[in-house]
Amino acid sequence: MAADTPAFTGFRPEAIQFLADLTENNSRDWFQPRKGEYERLLKEPLAALCVGLDEAFRARDIPLEADPTRSPFRIYRDVRFSKDKSPYKTNVAASFPWAEGGGEDGPHGFGESGNPGGYFHMSPGEVYIGGGMWRPPTAKLAAFRAAVAEDTKAVRRLIDDPRFKQTFGAISGDKLTRVPAGFPKDHPEAELLKQKDLTFGRRLADDDVFSAGLPDLIADSFLVAVPVMRWLATL
Asked: What phi and psi values does residue 38 have, to the nearest 5 degrees?
């Protein structure tokens, strides 16, 4: 554990309330006097969660990385190209890049360079974890579609594994409106072929994030998804 990071003991209910209040008061004038409260309730516990998660990943031989400095997303929104000029995000989140097989990923992983990753999100009424590849590169998506078409049974064995389906359900994310060019319109795996994202996720309860056991819960969930993520990484 990082020497200057305390053990994760769970987020406090006040953390969720802070985000709810920020949603109603998304301005610098409101946030700046409460920045210390944000750091105590959200920023510091999120860093501690990442430290605990990295330990849990190592203990389970899960090839994801959680780093208290690099994994958390900043609270500040990039408003340069947005009509919405609200300065702050109303959630906290962190991502966990794939750490097997080398290669460079983007600043937050999660499929930016063709590798899978994991993700944690917490906002009022919406707590979830996810994994896979969000907006994968064109070559990676083409390889996925070729695998679906050429060896459907092997792909289905992975994504229809009972433990994976019970934990995460189906592969999800944005889709094309039509079957991509080069595949029959009536292909039996048309819905899989339409995928633009190769992601999966599960919702968590508020009580889960208030618990010191959250790192183990998240790590146990991602452990089930390692075969799917490893396959995506090697496409």
From this structure: -60, -45
Give tens-digit pLDDT for 86-135: 999 999 999 999 998 754 444 445 555 578 999 999 999 999 999 999 99
**Contact in structure between 62 and 131 (CB atoms under 8 Å):** no
pTM: 0.92
Query: How far, in Å, CA of 130 to CA of 94, rounded?
Result: 11
Q: CA distances (Å), 162 to each of 132, 158, 230, in order?
A: 18, 9, 17
Single out the residue of 31, 42, 15, 17 nearest to residue 87, CA to CA: 31
Span 13-234 CATH architecture: 2-Layer Sandwich (3.30)
Sequence spans of domains, the chain:
13-234
Instruction: Tally the C-alpha atoms within 13 A of residue 66's C-alpha that lie toward its C-beta.
Output: 26
The candidate with the shortest Cα–Cα distance to 141, out of 174, 99, 118, 165, is 174
